[in-house]
Amino acid sequence: MKEGSIDIDFNQMTKRDSRDGTKFEVGGRMFFEAHVFGDSYTSFTTNAFLDKEGYVEPQIKKTVSSVFLDNWYWFTILFIFIGTGAYYFCKSQ
Fold it and tell me: How far apart are CA 19 and CA 27, in angstroms?
């Protein structure tokens, strides 16, 4: 058995994602694992995540439901305040 190295062209993996719809790169991050196989021998060698240099995560557009869920406590306080005001207004009429 002898030591060796393997060159991996990550640009080819990214191009294949665009061309064939594979998912080697997801969210600016590429995951890989390396294994060694031989006669009566197998070994898990390593794995890693590689971050794409300069990748910026896209911003999520705000929807009405996400704004409400992010601020539910303020809407609850506003509802209580309006409900209390309406109760006392109707009671005084």
Answer: 17
Given a contact cutoff of 8 angstroms between Cβ atoms, the answer to whether 45 and 37 are in contact is no
3-state DSSP of the chain? CCCCCCCCCHHHHHHHHHHHCCCCEECCEEEEEEEEEECCEEEEEEEEEEECCCCCCCCCCCCHHHHHHHCHHHHHHHHHHHHHHHHHHHHHC
Residue written as tokens 């209390």? 84
pTM: 0.40
pLDDT tens digits along 50-82:
888 888 888 877 777 777 778 888 888 999 999
What residues contact residue 32 under an 8 Å CB cut-off, 6+ apart?
Answer: 8, 47, 48, 50
Supply φ then ψ for residue 34, to 5 degrees. Answer: -125, 135
Place of tokens 């294949």: 16
